[in-house]
Fold this sequence. Notes:
Low-confidence stretches: none
Mean pLDDT: 81
Shape: globular
Order of helices and strands: HEEEEEH
Strand order of the largest sheet: 1-2-3-4-5
Amino acid sequence: MSRLTLPTAPTTRHKACRESVANQVLLIASIYGAVGEIFRRHGDHPREIHARIDDGRVRVQFTINSQVQAPNVFVLPWVSNRAMSPQYMAEVNPVHCMKATHVYGSIGELISSIDSVLSRSKSGALFLSYEKVAP
């Protein structure tokens, strides 16, 4: 499956890089059969792009924004309808394991992590499996 390529030193400060990241997110979502959407909200700054991914088991929404102080840092709130394994997701809510937040320090890390999460979601490895215990 073909992937888009990012510039050598991608940064959200450049319009072409923001659009490339958004297109890469859509491509990854489609590879795993997830619904990916790139959109802008009324009143948003022109340098903001929002992304949403949902594969029916896990979903995330985030902003690609050049106006923030740390432009290549992304905080993604992953939400699931199943308990996520802390083995694969950082900062999983320990009470119900259905929400996880992770900070990605670069565009490359963001792209590879989205790919990894959707791959593990599709295979089922992302989720905790509960074995029945005999009474």
